[in-house]
# Entry
Amino acid sequence: MEKILEINNLFAGTYDGTKEIIKGLNLTINSGEIHAIMGPNGAGKSTLAYLLAGKKDYAPTAGQIQFCGENLLTMKPEERANAGIFLSMQYPVAIPGVSTSNFLKHALNAKRKYQGLNELDAADFLKILRNTAKELGVSPEMLKREINVGFSGGEKKRLEVLQMKLLEPKLAVLDETDSGLDIDALRTVAQGVNDLHNQNNALLIITHHLDLLNLIKPDFVHIYADGHIIRSGSKELAIELEQNGYKSFLEA
Amino acid sequence: MAIDWMNNHLWGDDIPWLIGLREKGQRMFEQLGWPNAKTEAWKYSYFPQQILDNLMVCPDSDSCQCHENCHCHDKIKTPFAAYGIKFCNGRLHSEHVNLPEGVIVKPLVEAIYEGEVKKYINKSFDLDKFPFAALNTAFLENGMMLIVERGVKLSQPIFIHYQQHQKVHTFNNIRNIIVLEKGASATITEHYEGERGSSYFNNIVNEIYAHDESQLRHYIVNNESETAYHVALNAADLRANASYEAFVMQGECAFCRHESYIRLLQKGAAATVNGAYQLCNNGISDITTNIFHLASNTDSQQLVKGVADGRSKGVFQGKIHIAPNIKQSEGHQQHRALLLSDNAEIDAKPELEIFAEDVKCSHGNTCGDLDAEQLFYMQSRGISLDDAKRILIKAHVDEAVATISDTKVKNWLLNIITKKTP
# Structure
């Protein structure tokens, strides 16, 4: 078992320092594990996700994050991605003028370059892409379209999972991947994520809903409020939360 | 510096109407003066007349020996299957004109001598609006007349290569008269290319006459040397149901201005005037368009996309004019630019002059940096910031290039952009 992510007493806020959002967070994730973070709106869950991915809108003020033994906080966003962090965004960004397949080719080749491998030519790349896309029910037609431009909620999330499968991260952070999905799309996405998960990688799922956690079964559930984890437990904790709401935890 | 008119030995001093026309051009140029910051149509972009001091007017073409390895007389090479026409250092090399039946190309002097060009020359624009077209008229000699005959539809593009050689410092006045007779259809691509280190001034006037039901796709690629000056007027008169699709790709040189002056004269005429510019050093690129809706049921579309980095300057001026009593017409104009450096500049002046009611017009102008969310999304997938920027810049320019309807030309241009944005 390998320690993948270790967050120690992390404090962080907006880049300009005007707002503190994460206040004393501790979290350790080992390979093979699935962690879920649940928390009320505005608790800072997405901030945590963005901070892990290196978005410059947020900055740490104290504490450490180690990723596979490296100091994550000194790495650029692209270095983090190539080292194995994947953030599946709640709102994947549309990029007019860039086809989905071209985008994916750039991403995969960036990773291969980082790993010291040859970059794939168009033909080899397309072969890999088509196979992976097929498993997720992503049509060749969709791969030709501009990335996330005019995609439905379900298409966007399926594409996020497709990227995840191509890039094979050590740690996938799923930020409200279930938002805006109907039950069929949710199943497809969950199936994709489960297929990807193995004993060498880990998942961090940020969600509001039990539905996703019934499909991707977490080993640990953390209740997150006011910038830190107030309680950790097994999946039963999520069920308790669903029944009683956040109120009982916040009062405790 | 005053232009030394006396020192020009132009051909055709036995043709009175030609002499009269040149004199008219000279007078008009002197009246209008060299454009500067106070000239409304040139206030964002101009360049000093002193550049002419180091340039030579009209070198002898037939005995061209620009330098030891002169290849003016070599056969033209085209980047895709096309009919080729070649200009070297401002002179037409008619011996290499290779065109199919139904297309006539002749040097301007020949067309002047035969007199047939008289009914077209200087008829597509008003001389008093264009100082450099006036100057071009004063030096009228070089260029060609190209006619696509009635009903002839060309299966491949005509490719005109304007080559400027190293160490050849000339002031090139080129006048092309392009006539599409009724129902004719053609694609014309102009490629201006200067070897590195060559300083010259290309002063181009294209007069386009598109008769009823004709279709012209006209693509212009400015790939001049970094020390070149380039000013072009593209004046087009469109008759009933004629369509004109233009695209100008401006590379970077000391100064480059491409001006369109398009008159939709009769019902059903339609013009698309798109373009792109990509600047990263200290060049100036100006795309100016004037579109006149002078008949009902006429349409015009413009999409210009630009990138200015380094210490460069991009200018877009677009005017749509709709004459009184025009009905059922549309004119739309968009200019979107990326401003990537604190020292770069973008100037935009959109103008709508609408004197009619039953018409639809729009214009839009944006200018800004690359989108931070898009950059982060790419970085979060492992793409380096520099690569992410290049991908977005290319996508920005490609959107305009993608409007080109001729696939061969479109793919050629997309490749050029890829090379510029590695």
